[in-house]
Each structure stands twice: as structure tokens, then as C-alpha cells.
Write a structure and sequence with these properties.
CATH topology of the largest domain: 2-enoyl-CoA Hydratase, Chain A, domain 1
CATH class of the largest domain: Alpha Beta
Mean pLDDT: 91
Helix content: 25-40%
Largest sheet: 8 strands, mixed
CATH architecture of the largest domain: Alpha-Beta Complex
Radius of gyration: 27 Å
Structural class: alpha/beta
Strand content: 15-25%
Number of strands: 17
Low-confidence stretches: none
Oligomer: single chain
Number of helices: 21
Length: about 525
């Protein structure tokens, strides 16, 4: 019997190094990760990317620290797995922090690996996706770790508006680390395991005496509902990564490239009779604007962004005739659809993202104005409301606006009006476009007449009806050219699809300048 030939020792060395890198911090730490209900960095990448497409970079890179005994603790790849792969056949660059290696802490070497894939993504024009699961800066490396964070932050800033950037928080993201995801376009968090905060519960208690749990301080639901830091929150890692893939299907790979087009099974000429019954004639009655959106877009599919935050405005991605669009809509079911600080910031951020990446904007308007009160005024509604105004005014992508019911005061102007360079402005027949609601206008304009009236209630009702007939309708605005067309509700889908088709070759530029100064 022939004796087996020993394998090439050089190949065997490669096999051993591959195996060492792929086991991360060792089986015991991998097992703990699984007991905690979490996947490893490589398992996450396997779910995110198309099978067999991941190409790893810097697999054998190690840290260079020598203090505190680290010179004898070197694991190939250090605390992050980096590279590129495909999502639905389109290339993306990725990094996944590996908490089984030194707690996923950021060393100089880890930062260099992340910066390399970010630089490469910028050079070739592909999205950047970061999977965060880290205990923070590697304290043993001191300022070198902080410098690494700053280098990453710089690249996030330079990449902003050039390629889409997605942050997926799958474990702790603490201290300085939080500012990188904050610059990116979308933040995903896994409920129950992900957390983000600048100072932990222990530090807060020591500084202020306040007692708070990690979940209550910076868990997924807190950031999805209260702070608005997280745009998406899901119960499992698998659901989170599936949502990342879904979001990417709407986005171009880079600025200047058209968004991906899909075959449309939904008739572009479809008229939806149900639309006429969704918005009540009474402007004070609530309804769910998402019913209108789903009746208009392809197959009723809306990928809502920041669904749990500032629910008085709805933003999300959809398709019309197979082409992605960004949707912004007032939500009458929450605060009557009035704008406040949080809603203004949420919508402004989304509008600017869509404009940066060439996604046309479809805006549904049913807005009574801004939420009144000292809380909003002291909270800076003037400043924050101007952010939405600035975003719509600055946007040069095709913009189509549909007023479904009411558009009052400054909120009418801000919500993608003709005066902010919206391209096509439509209204339903029951729309009211006015400085304020007829009831309020009558109380101001006819104050003396009402005081002198023998029957003030009947006189008020008569004046309100007259004001509504003469001023609070879409035909005054249409007569001035502020509305391009008054349409029947059931015509909305074919009308907006035709409008966007007409605008497909639109070219519009901003005045030459270094950059504007929005009311940040």
C-alpha cells in the first residue's frame, strides 16, 4: 500500500491560517455568541450576501500592540471581517465586527481594515454596509484606537451622498463608535441584542444618580420610537439582514447611476376606485394615508422608513411602473398630519437622501399646519421646520405632489409646493388650499360681523360655507398656476406615473457654490 504523500507544507500553512482566522476568538466564544442568541460575523455575512460571492480582504491582518501582553495575543483578521460580495447580483462592500475577538474592540489594525473597504467602495462606486457588534475602542491601544474611529468617521463623511451607507447594529455600539452609524444613511437594529449610547448606565449613575437599564437607555425600540436614531428594528438577525437586502433593491449603487428597474406586473394605467372613499370630506376626520400610498404604488408595496418614529409623517420607498421612488406623506391619523420638530427632521433627512441618489419624490399632502404650543416653539420648530423646507427646495430630482385634502398655511408651502420647484402639482377635487382652515379664517376676517350678529352660530356656519366655496378649494390655486391639474382620486396612479415618465430626462442645477448652509 502506497504511503500518502505529505501535502505541500506551504499549502498546509495556508490551510491552518485560514482555519485560525475563521474560528475567530475560538469555539468557546463562538458558543457564547450563539447562547446569547447572536450569530458570528461570518454567519451574518453569509445571510446578507448572495451564496458563494464573499471575497475577503486582509484575512491575516493582526494588531501591532505590544503593551499589556498583547504582543502574545494575535488572531488573524483581528476583530473584524472585511471584503466585498453581491446582493441580488450587485456588488457591495462590507465589514462585520467580530465580538469573539478582543470583544470586537477597535484597534488600529481593525480601523485600517474598515477604512480599506470604505476607500475601495468609494473608488469603484458601491454601497458600504457595516455590521456593528463591538465593545468600543481597544483601551490597550490608547489614542491609536481613537484615531482609528476618526479615520472611519472621515470616510463616512466623504462617502455621504456618493454611495449608500447602511449600518446594522447587531450588538453593542458604544461611546465614540456611535458617531459612525449616525452619519450613514440608514441604521438597522436588532431588538433585544443591539444597543447604542455614548455613556453607559454605570457612567450615567455615577455622574447624575439616574438609574437606567441598557435596553431602556439605548435599545432598538428606544432608538426606533423615541430618538429616531434607528430607521428599522427587527426581532431577529435573520429578519434584519433580509430587510437590508430589501432596502438595497431600491437603491442605485452610487450617485449618478439610475435606481434599479424591475418588471412591473401592476398595470400602470390602473385606476383605483377605492381612493375616492379613503379621505373623508370632513377635514377634521382622520384616515390612514398609507391606504392611499398602497393603492397608488406597484403591488401595494411600501418599504416604510422610521415607521415607529414621528408617525405624523410617513416616508418610505416604493415603485411606480417598476421604478423606485421616495414617498413622503402627511399622516392624518396622527396629530391630524400636522408637522412638528421630529416629523420635520425625519422627512427632511429622507428627502435629502432621495435627492442625493436620484430617487424621484412623490409627496402626498394633507396638512393643517404645524403643531402649536410652547413645547414645539421652545424645541425649535422654526429651526427644524426650515430643514424640511430647505430639503424640498434644494432637491433637483423629479418631484410630483398630490394634495389629497387640505394644505394650510406655511405647511402648504413647505410640503413640496410649486413654489419650491416641484415639477407637477396635482390636487383632488375636495382639496382645500388656503392660508388657514375656513373656521379659523372666518373667526379672524369676520370677527366684528360675528359679534354683531343676532344668531352668531348660524352666521358663522354661513360664512364658513361661503369661505370654503370661494377660497378653500383647489381651483383658486389652479387658476394661479400653482396646481397643474385637479384630478379625480381614482386617476392618481396613472397620473403620477405619467408625470414621472415625462420628467425622466429632467435636468436642473443648483447655483454654483461650495455648499449650502442648511439649518442643521
Amino acid at each position: 500500500m502506497d504511503t500518502p504523500v505529505d501535502p505541500d507544507p506551504r499549502r498546509r500553512r495556508l490551510d491552518l491560517m485560514d482555519a485560525e482566522a475563521e474560528q475567530g476568538g475560538g469555539q468557546a466564544r463562538v458558543d457564547k455568541q450563539h447562547r446569547d442568541g447572536k450569530l458570528t460575523a461570518r454567519e451574518r455575512l453569509a445571510l446578507l450576501l448572495d451564496p458563494g460571492t464573499f471575497v475577503e480582504l486582509d484575512k491575516f491582518k493582526v494588531h501591532r500592540a505590544t503593551d499589556f501582553g498583547l504582543d502574545g495575543q494575535k488572531i488573524p483578521g483581528d476583530g473584524v471581517v472585511t471584503g466585498h460580495g453581491l446582493v441580488e447580483g450587485r456588488q457591495v462592500f462590507v465589514y462585520a465586527q467580530d465580538i469573539t475577538v478582543f470583544g470586537g474592540s477597535l484597534s488600529g489594525a481593525v480601523a485600517e481594515k474598515i477604512c480599506k473597504v470604505m476607500d475601495r467602495a468609494m473608488e469603484v462606486g458601491c454601497p458600504i454596509i457595516g455590521l456593528d457588534d463591538s465593545g468600543g475602542a481597544r483601551i490597550q491601544e490608547g489614542v491609536a484606537a481613537l484615531a482609528g474611529y476618526a479615520e472611519i468617521f472621515l470616510r463616512h463623511t466623504l462617502a455621504s451622498g456618493v454611495v449608500p451607507q447602511l449600518s446594522v447594529i447587531m450588538g453593542p455600539c458604544l461611546g465614540s463608535a456611535v458617531y459612525g452609524p449616525a452619519i450613514t444613511d440608514f441604521v438597522f437594529m436588532v431588538d433585544g441584542t443591539a444597543s447604542m449610547y455614548t455613556a453607559g448606565p454605570e457612567a450615567i449613575q455615577a455622574a447624575t444618580g439616574e438609574v437606567v437599564t441598557r435596553e431602556a437607555l439605548g435599545g432598538a425600540q428606544v432608538h426606533a420610537e423615541r430618538s429616531g436614531v434607528a430607521h428599522f428594528a427587527f426581532d431577529t438577525e435573520a429578519a434584519t439582514l433580509k430587510a437590508v437586502r430589501a432596502l438595497l433593491s431600491y437603491l442605485p449603487l452610487r450617485s449618478g447611476e439610475p435606481p434599479p428597474v424591475r418588471p412591473c406586473r401592476d398595470d400602470p394605467a390602473r385606476q383605483e376606485a377605492a381612493l375616492a372613499a379613503i379621505a373623508p370630506d370632513d377635514p377634521a376626520r382622520a384616515y390612514d394615508v398609507k391606504e392611499i400610498i398602497r393603492a397608488v404604488v406597484d403591488d401595494g408595496e411600501l418599504l416604510e422608513v422610521a415607521e415607529a418614529f414621528a408617525q405624523n409623517v410617513v416616508v418610505g420607498l416604493a415603485r411606480l411602473d417598476g421604478r423606485p421612488v421616495g414617498v413622503v406623506a402627511n399622516q392624518p391619523a396622527v396629530h391630524g398630519g400636522a408637522l412638528d420638530v421630529k416629523a420635520s427632521v425625519k422627512a427632511a433627512r429622507f428627502v435629502r437622501f432621495c435627492d442625493a441618489f436620484g430617487l424621484p419624490l412623490l409627496t402626498f399632502v394633507d396638512v393643517p399646519g404645524f403643531v402649536p404650543g410652547t413645547a414645539e416653539e421652545w424645541g425649535g420648530i422654526v429651526h427644524h421646520g426650515a430643514k424640511l423646507l430647505y430639503a424640498f427646495a434644494e432637491a433637483t430630482v423629479p418631484k410630483v405632489t398630490v394634495i389629497t385634502r387640505k394644505a394650510y398655511g406655511g405647511a402648504y408651502a413647505i410640503m413640496a409646493s410649486k413654489h419650491l420647484r416641484a415639477d407637477v402639482n396635482l390636487a383632488w377635487p375636495g382639496a382645500e388650499v388656503a392660508v388657514m382652515a375656513p373656521e379659523g379664517a372666518v373667526g379672524i376676517v369676520f370677527r366684528k360681523e360675528l359679534l354683531a350678529a343676532q344668531d352668531p352660530v348660524s352666521e358663522r356656519a354661513r360664512l364658513v360655507a361661503d369661505y370654503r366655496e370661494r377660497f378653500a378649494n383647489p381651483y383658486v390655486a389652479a387658476g394661479l398656476g400653482y396646481l397643474d391639474e385637479v384630478i379625480r382620486p381614482e386617476q392618481t396612479r396613472p397620473k403620477v406615473i405619467r408625470a414621472f415618465a415625462t420628467l425622466r430626462t429632467k435636468q436642473q442645477a443648483l447655483p454654483r457654490k461650495k455648499h449650502g448652509n442648511p439649518p442643521l
